[in-house]
Amino acid sequence: MRPDIIRMRGPEETVKASSGQVVLSVEDLWLEYRVRRGVVKATRGVSFQVKKGESLSLIGESGCGKTTLGLGLIRLLPRMARVAQGRVHYFRLGQDYDVLALSPNDLRQFRWKECAMVFQSALNALNPVLRVSDQFADTARAHGGSFWGGEAHKRARDLLKLVQLDPDRVLHAYPHELSGGMRQRVLIAMGLLLDPQLIILDEPTTALDILTQRAVIDVLRQLRQQLDFSLMFISHDLSLAAELADRVATMYAGIIVELGDVYEIFEKPRHPYTEGLIHAVPTVTGDLELLSSIPGSPPDLIEFSPGCTFAPRCPYAVERCREEEPSLEEVSPGHLTACFNWKQVGSQHE
Amino acid sequence: MSAVTQPSASSGLPLPIPVLLRRIASNFVLRRLVRALITIWIVITLTFFIIRLMPSNPVDIFIQEQMSLYGMTYDDARAQASALFSIRMDRPVFNQYLDYLGNLTHGDLGKSFKSFGTPVSSMVAKFLPWTLFSVGLSLLISFTLGMALGMIMAYRRESLLDHILSTIGSVLSSVPNYLVAMVLLVFLGVQWKLLPLAQMRGSMTPGIQPGFTLEFLGDILFHAAMPVTTYVLTTVGGWMLTMKSSTITTLEEDYVTVARARGLPDSRIMTAYVGRNAMLPLFTQLAISVGFIVGGSVLIEAIFVYQGVGKMLIDSINQRDYPVMQAVFLIITIAVILANFLADFLYSRLDPRVRTTGGGEA
Amino acid sequence: MTALARTARNILDDVWRTLKLMARNKVGFIGFLGLIGFILLTFVGPSLVPLAAESHMTDIYKPPSAQHILGTDFQGRDIWAQIVHGGKDVLIVAFLTGIISTTIAVTLGSLSAVLAGFFDSFIMWITDIWLTIPNFPVLAVLAVFVKLTNVWALAFILSLLSWPTLTRAVRAQVLSLKQRDYVEAARALDLGTRHIIFSEILPNMMSYIAISLVFSMTSAIYAQVALVFLGLVPFASNNWGVMLSLAWTRGAIFYKDSLLYIMAPVTAIALFQLTLVWMTRSLEEVFNPRLRTSV
What we know:
The complex is a heterotrimer.
Chain A: E1 22-35, E2 38-51, E3 55-59, H1 66-73, E4 81-92, E5 95-98, H2 104-113, E6 115-118, H3 132-142, H4 151-162, H5 167-172, H6 180-192, E7 198-202, H7 210-226, E8 230-235, H8 238-244, E9 247-252, E10 255-261, H9 262-267, H10 272-279, H11 319-323, E11 329-332, E12 335-337
Parallel strand pairs in A: 3-8, 3-9, 6-7, 7-8
Antiparallel strand pairs in A: 1-2, 1-4, 4-5, 9-10, 10-12, 11-12
Helix pairs in contact in A: 4-6
Chain B: H1 17-26, H2 28-53, H3 58-70, H4 74-85, H5 93-106, H6 120-155, H7 160-174, H8 177-191, H9 197-200, H10 214-251, H11 254-261, H12 266-278, H13 282-304, H14 309-318, H15 322-350
Helix pairs in contact in B: 2-15, 3-4, 6-7, 6-10, 7-10, 8-10, 8-13, 10-12, 10-13, 11-12, 13-14, 13-15, 14-15
Chain C: H1 3-22, H2 26-48, H3 79-115, H4 117-132, H5 135-145, H6 151-178, H7 181-188, H8 193-229, H9 240-249, H10 259-287
Helix pairs in contact in C: 1-10, 2-3, 2-10, 3-4, 3-6, 3-8, 3-10, 4-6, 6-8, 7-8, 8-9, 8-10, 9-10
């Protein structure tokens, strides 16, 4: 049974065909924070790939390590965090770049020009004392280009039109003269200014009201149709994945617990957590009896008990789950899950 | 906003009054200007009435003195007073007030008691530029230095430099400025004989031609060095510490993180993103600093024998030269009020968010 | 234990606890000790150190010796003795000014915040005007017209300087506290304005009030020493400001040998200001009720 939320996609919108080329490859990434109590392991051996032109969504509760992961990919971690181990590789025109080993100058060029990360709550993401046009100019000039009267300027105007904003009004304005939704869209347009291969969106709709959310989602969909970039977005909102993603990865307690094609994930989830997430989302037409929440609370990321981290909250847990931690394994082509009982997943909600 | 441009029939102003008032209320700069002008008017009025209403009223004292010392009649003495104050003393108080206001608009500040009727305005014209020069220069140096050091302290938080500068800053700003002046005099001038004190007195060496020559500029800087050093030393600490905490807060703002994610160079982030935002809270301190330095100039100029209006005020107080006292007090106060307005204006240029109340929301 | 002994014991406990709270902040504790030191020096010292009133013209500007710890002044009198005797007036005026201006500020500030409306606007209008006028020239001019013969008059005039700033600060604090829950509760219970101010809001502002009091003391010291130095206050007795004034008029600044005569009061005043400022760092610990473990 295909859940209602996925039905919102029209029949003509299929998964965007990807050329299969890898743009970003993350292998066994461990990111940790030093706090007073100990060391918080924000990610524990995360591995995935983003292919050219595809849209990958990373879904998880707050505190599961997803924002840290995003920051780690562009090496913007705060002072008390660090990369404990792992590899992050970026590919462009056949060249392989080790992101974690980039020199400060190369890193600066990599950021935004190759990979642009657009943060949540764009309310304070723009410098309050500079006009929007100056901030676009800063961005262009930082990467070796000029802005005023040139190509970048024209591209900025086109992008602003694409995100449903009036370039004349917006470029001349100061950030405080624009609403929250407008600022978010400006930031998205700015993200596309330098034509990056990969855009990472961190909680693109969280701080917005529902009407603006709809506007931003529609804009993102349009952009994907018209421009060519790979998209990775991080959210706790599964319905966003249903609308925008080609592939979905769910994250729990610092690891990816399931990864697969969006339709497969929604029709036949292979991890209890994913299943729980799907059935916790209310829909307008759905029955209330089908709604359930996941009991319990997220685990402590400093001290880990043995076994699967989801076991305490899992309806399918058996003895083995409390002793061994399952690793991410392929159970059908392109579909991976980290669960010993993946075959039973779905039986609770038939 | 409506685009009413025809003159209003009744008032003859370019806009009808309600619209004009609303325009003023909604524009930050105009609001502050109106406030400054009203404050100036209040100060002028209060000065006039308080001096008149004091028990030891200078006008009466003068009249008594003239009568007892020179045997003048009451009417003659009063006429003398009228001439010196440029106000007709035989009229009722309210009319005297109007005279006073009228004089001010013509720049007539009365005549000095002690200097045989010299117009006060000419004395002010001679002394005021020096105070403006020394105070203005000090503010500029102190503000810039404080901003720079404060930012360095924030970027190098908890380092040895930070701790040293913090301690120096807080100690210097707690010690009264006239004491710092004395210490400078005593140690630099007398004990260690590093500076030629006798030559540094006064605001310029007599005989040198004023003008934009290197010789003249060098000379006035030489003479202003001690007062300026004192002002700077006693105010830089406050700027430093405020800028440090402001910068620390700004560094944690989202737009700084986003700026780094955008690949902007550190130099640009430090100036246009961190610096320009962190310096904004300093402008509220500017108002206090101006009042503080100008107030302190009364003492500092006396100690260094620098011929500015501060020294003029002290001399006039000691000599009981009332027209001068009143005029200098007014000048000092008006200068500070105008300086504060200037600071407000600068602030509105630097922070676009205050320019109008209620920005346009989409 | 008798009731009297128990009360004494309680008072000692309170004092000990206050001291321990003060000691939490090193700089603040040093300031506190400094303040105690100055109080002892200036109030108790005079009875231990005699003040020589006669002049010994043979002993002018002598360097420090066993007989004169800080040497002698332009009339051959001992400097140390003058320092010991000269602080009392300064401290008394400072304390008085602090108390007067803080009382005015707390009353006006909290009333202004609680009553709001026209009263609030009026008070704010006055303080606004006051803040834009440079304070010391006003004081200097006032001193010409008002006879400042005793400490109370001086303290009163000085408190005119600092009450506006304090009032604004108190008002801001009260406004922020006004929104808190326990005030809403008191209002819902209709406990009356006076109760709200004195029993709900003020206790939570004690640390703030204490710090404001100390700062008004520092500005009082600045102003009174400056006035005395300029000769605008007809003080007959000897105090640090008078020492400065005499040193200046006698040209003591320009002699090599009279260094101590000018530096002694300068150091005393500067050190006192520093100890006050440092002490404010501890005041928050002492007065913040949330840090107290028992009621």
